[in-house]
């Protein structure tokens, strides 16, 4: 028996296609089954998680940004990112097709500590995580590193150099965070699509090395 997809095509039912973003080859060809993978983008508060998902997503990303008010002055330190007006209160969601039939579904975590309880749900089924780090606030990424170490999820570390921050080599950051040699650490600009995609590719490669089946 033919697949449900080709039966639907025989009855003139259009294939399932997003109305948003460019149509990908795997969306219109019923013979192709893309490999869908889930990736988590984590790290401390205001380190560039939403920026990364937005920069690479080929669909309009789902965002759950809330305006920051004086009420959070005591808990949210904006010294490093004075221009930041909003914060993620649930998650970011975006999609990126690599090599035509590898589809990455990207889930950005909320950075504020009071929303960390959501991480357990966000990481379920993920193949790996990108941990973003800002060299001015390196300790802010420790909770994410600890979290992925303890749950055994493969991760890479991506250093997001903010304007005016001192520029470090990836190996300096590895040493400062005591990241084991087999885990990729790279310098990235979350605002630049190509740079962010390189990070995601590195994670996919690392996740395959760690869990080849
Ligand atoms: N210079 C520079 N600025 C960046 C970079 N990435 C993000 N930003 C800026 O940093 C600010 C914070 O970015 P967000 O993407 O909202 O950070 P976030 O990690 O999602 O923040 P929360 O969800 O609140 O934890 C924004 O104003 C971005 O424009 C970068 O690579 N370089
Ligand atoms: Mg965010």
Automatic annotation (TrEMBL):
It comes from the Bacteria. GO terms for molecular function: ATP binding; GTP binding; hydrolase activity. Gene3D superfamilies: P-loop containing nucleotide triphosphate hydrolases. InterPro entries: Gliding_Motility_GTPase (IPR052705), Gpn (IPR004130), P-loop_NTPase (IPR027417). It holds the Pfam family ATP_bind_1. Keywords: ATP-binding, GTP-binding, Hydrolase, Nucleotide-binding. Belongs to the GPN-loop GTPase family. This is ATP-binding protein. It comes from Streptomyces coelicoflavus.
């Amino acid at each position: 028996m033919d697949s449900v997809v080709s039966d639907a095509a025989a009855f003139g039912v259009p294939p399932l296609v997003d109305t948003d973003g460019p149509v990908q080859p795997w969306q219109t060809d019923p013979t192709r089954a893309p490999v869908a993978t889930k990736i988590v983008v984590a790290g401390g508060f205001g380190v560039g998680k939403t920026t990364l998902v937005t920069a690479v997503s080929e669909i309009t990303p789902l965002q759950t940004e809330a305006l920051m008010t004086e009420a959070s002055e005591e808990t949210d330190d904006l010294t490093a990112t004075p221009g930041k007006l909003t914060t993620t209160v649930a998650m970011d969601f975006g999609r990126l097709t690599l090599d035509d039939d590898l589809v990455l579904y990207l889930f950005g975590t909320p950075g504020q500590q009071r929303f960390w309880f959501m991480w357990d749900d966000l990481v379920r089924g993920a193949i790996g995580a990108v941990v973003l780090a800002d060299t001015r606030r390196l300790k802010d990424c420790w909770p994410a590193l600890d979290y992925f170490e303890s749950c055994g999820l493969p991760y890479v570390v991506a250093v997001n150099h903010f304007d005016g921050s001192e520029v470090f080599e990836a190996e300096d950051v590895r040493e400062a965070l005591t990241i084991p040699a087999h885990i990729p650490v790279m310098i990235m600009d979350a605002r630049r699509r190509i740079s962010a995609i390189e990070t995601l590719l590195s994670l996919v490669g690392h996740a395959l090395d760690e869990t080849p089946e």
